[in-house]
Amino acid sequence: MRRTVRSVESFHQMQNDPRRMRLQLPTVPQISADALLAKARRANPELVRGWLRRRAKAGAARAGFMVSRIDEEGRRYVAVTHNDDVPLPPGAEAELRQDNPRLVELQATYDALDLPSAVHTQWRQGFLKKNLSLAWFRGDNAYVWQFRQLGHAARIRMYLAMLDVLERDRLGLFDTLREDGLFGAFTFEFGDRPPVSRDLLDSINEINYLDQQMGLSQIEGLRVLDIGAGYGRLAHRMSTAFPGLAAYDCVDAVATSTFLCEYYTRFRGLPETVRVVPLHEHEKLAERYDVAVNIHSFSEASHEAICWWLDRIAERDIPWLLIVPNTPDELRSTELDGSMRPFRQDVLDRGYELVDDRPIHQSDELRELIDLHDRFYLFRKRS
Ligand SMILES: C[S@@+](CC[C@H](N)C(=O)[O-])C[C@H]1O[C@@H](n2cnc3c(N)ncnc32)[C@H](O)[C@@H]1O
User: Fold this and answer.
1) Which domain, by its residues, includes 197?
2) Ligand 1 pocket residue status of 228, Cβ below 6 Å
3) Distance of CA 197 from the midpoint of ligand 1 (Å)
4) Averaged pLDDT for residues 135-160
5) Is the full-model pTM beyond 0.85?
6) Residue 136 domain flag
């Protein structure tokens, strides 16, 4: 996350700035703690607060930092936000509530499961409380970072990212997939082009990548398993791109995600070939899939949970496995103590080989400009 703390060098630069009169910190007289308390008791609380603020700033500056208030746009980069330009559809607010009986039921069932995948290291209740506004689940939150991923100048960065994805759109998905900004998604419009969002760009990029690598669009009766499917972002996009898809199964170990995925796939009117399989029914997953996808999900689970999922993949002999981790240089888990354990070897140990590994945005210059360094890791089952 971005903080408005600048380095000591920039503080010194400011000292040489002709505008420095506005930037200079107040000098703080040295007084004893008792005198300070006595003064505080007598003083106007507003003035005391201001004095304390200035004192804290001065202390931070002496330590080499400058602390300043961030503006409205800046707040988007550090907080859960959503775009309410498009109102929620009728009934959404009434249904997307923590006390919805279906969510309560899923939560109780998942809590009672004795499965490694159901033990959470990141996606715990506190994390969800801080990082998700349920009814606005396509906003900037735990599922898809939009502003926080793009940082300042989001519009320009989004434009560059769009040009990059457009360049490789061999399936013409910019013409078939649309973004309506529902449920809080931030959308960007450029000229006469239809609006784009992070959800749309990521999905188009992933589908084209899989098509280029394994001929996704040419597979008769395509069957996809999406592990850690979130609210069903890719299920929605892929089933719209390939209406003839034979199966797209979404599975997740977080009750809120399963709940939202059930809601969203129903709301979008996706065909019956798209299923949301609750974790406790994981044995209902199909025997055969052409590809398993895991986009930013294994990285947010424990090593034990990941190995449990890898066993489910390996026992089905799924020929292709796409992983997009959160740490671009390596595949790593998130453990309870905050450490991260590598799991590339665990994939290889189950009979897979890494056949491709590349950044999701392919131009070096562009990646630098948009500061987005995620990578695709594509594995294939050895025959
Ligand atoms: C950042 S979201 C990504 C969602 C989706 N793959 C996408 O790209 O839109 C991470 C997802 O991982 C899921 N997740 C967290 N822990 C998991 C676990 N132990 N097993 C499976 N999924 C998990 C969360 O519920 C969430 O849906």
Assistant:
1) 147-381
2) yes
3) 19
4) 81
5) no
6) no
